[in-house]
Specification:
- This protein is of the alpha+beta class.
- It has 2 domains: 2-51; 55-164, Beta Complex (Ferric Hydroxamate Uptake Protein, Chain A, domain 1).
- The chain is built from 5 helices and 7 strands, in the order ααββαβββββαα.
- It has helices at residues 2-16, 21-51, 83-90, 153-157, 160-164, and strands at 55-62, 70-76, 93-98, 101-107, 110-111, 117-123, 142-149.
- The protein has a 4-stranded mixed sheet, covered by helices on one side. Strands 3-4-5 form a 3-stranded antiparallel sheet, with helices on one face.
- Strand 4 and strand 5 form a beta hairpin.
- The chain is elongated, with a radius of gyration of 30 Å.
């Protein structure tokens, strides 16, 4: 009984201050979702800031002795690009799926010639060991695309005799 009296006294005090019972209930119903929205917005803004952080890259394209080598600085403003997205930002690139792989088939019209010449890339001077479509770059990376002797086609074709040659 005492608890009921205290609630009733609180309601009476609030009513005296100009708050009606309905307004108090409406405020309580609106306050919780509003508080949740504010908290979730502040948490997601940290993730968005990291996602929107710009990434500076250097992209180089070596056409394998064909004149016209490219060296460009690239600032990426939408998260971290893959090695494929980076080269697509500075050159005309075609890709081709082979089985479960996606390969660069040409850059600026210079096409891969299976078993002869193909496009390969390095990140900071090292072969990354993964396809460009899956290799996410970091700020300050240098990506170099090189048109050189095709050493992968025999492995993909499964012809061990060609690998031994």
């Amino acid at each position: 009984m005492r608890g009921m009296r205290m609630k009733s006294e609180k309601m009476t005090k609030l009513s005296v201050l100009g708050f009606g019972t309905r307004r108090i209930l409406a405020f309580k119903l609106l306050a919780l979702p509003l508080a949740i929205a504010i908290l979730s917005a502040s948490c997601s803004s940290t993730k968005e800031t990291e996602k929107n952080k710009s990434v500076s890259l250097k992209i180089e394209i070596d056409y394998g002795g064909i004149p016209g080598a490219v060296q460009k600085d690239l600032v990426w403003t939408h998260g971290n690009p893959t090695a494929l997205e980076a080269v697509q930002a500075v050159a005309k690139v075609n890709t081709r799926p082979i089985g479960k792989y996606i390969f660069v088939s040409s850059i600026d019209g210079i096409e891969t010639r299976r078993r002869e010449k193909a496009w390969y890339y390095t990140v900071n001077g090292k072969s990354p060991g993964k396809l460009a479509v899956w290799n996410e770059l970091k700020d300050g990376d240098t990506v170099r695309w090189i048109y050189k002797k095709d050493v992968c086609s025999p492995k993909i074709d499964g012809s061990k005799a060609e690998v031994a040659k």
